[in-house]
Amino acid sequence: MLQEQGLKVDELGFVEAMKEHRIASGGGKAFGPLGGEDVDVYRAVLENLQQSGKIDLKGVAYDPYIEYETEGELLAIVSNGISPQEAAEGDKVELIIPKTSFYVESGGQVADTGMIVSVSEPRWEVRIEDTRRPAAGVVAHVGIVVKGTPRVGDAVIAAVDAQRRRDIMRNHTATHLMHAELQAVLGEHARQAGSLVAPDRLRFDFTHPEG
């Protein structure tokens, strides 16, 4: 949203300030890693891709609402805080491609899972277990290499687990139905105060003054 207004967020500065706050408040040990410490790695990767013309200034094209599969080039691999040119079977990796239909967790709805596979020989496969935004303009597909050797520059197909997505969509619809019925039975004051939308269940939090 800020990019649309020509503004930027100092994400690295925010992370550093949060680290200082956690230490000052005594929460450093209790809370563990904050997350987002790798933002500078992804920023550098994105800038390189933009400078080389692989990605435009808006970043990775993100549209999880139209199709379950996209084709493109494996633009970058990130693993253990570095960006190697290839990965080996068994490695935990985060893959960046020019466009994606994988949903990033938002509004209580969990992220998509699926597969990213090479188009040509030698074939390789990465099982995607999560999708996240580690920095503005970047969508990272988090997974495990289950076959072969992924290499930057390979042509790929990124396929969302369609059945799991449909299960999530049904539970998302159910939260709206539940909200409507709660207001019909309890009153208009019963408003949503959070939710979890997963493939196997939903949780709907709402406001009400009594049990």
Cα distance, first to last residue? 39 Å
Overall structural class, as computed from helix and strand content, comes to alpha+beta
* Widest β-sheet, arrangement of strands: 2-9-6-7-8-4-3
Helix content: 25-40%
Could you spell the SSE succession in H and E letters? HHHEEEEEEEEEHEE
Average of pLDDT: 90
The stretches of 5 or more residues where confidence is low (pLDDT under 50) are 27-34
Question: Total strand count, please?
Answer: 11
How would you describe this structure to a colleague?
22% of the residues are buried. It is globular, with a radius of gyration of 20 Å. The chain is built from 4 helices and 11 strands. The chain has 211 residues and is of the alpha+beta class. The model is unreliable at 27-34 (pLDDT under 50). A hairpin with a 4-residue loop joins strand 10 (192-197) and strand 11. It has a 7-stranded antiparallel beta sheet, covered by helices on one side. It has a two-stranded parallel sheet with strand order 1-5. Strands 10-11 form a two-stranded antiparallel sheet.
How would you sum up this structure in a few lines?
This protein has about 210 residues and is of the alpha+beta class. About 25% of the residues lie in helices and about 25% in strands.
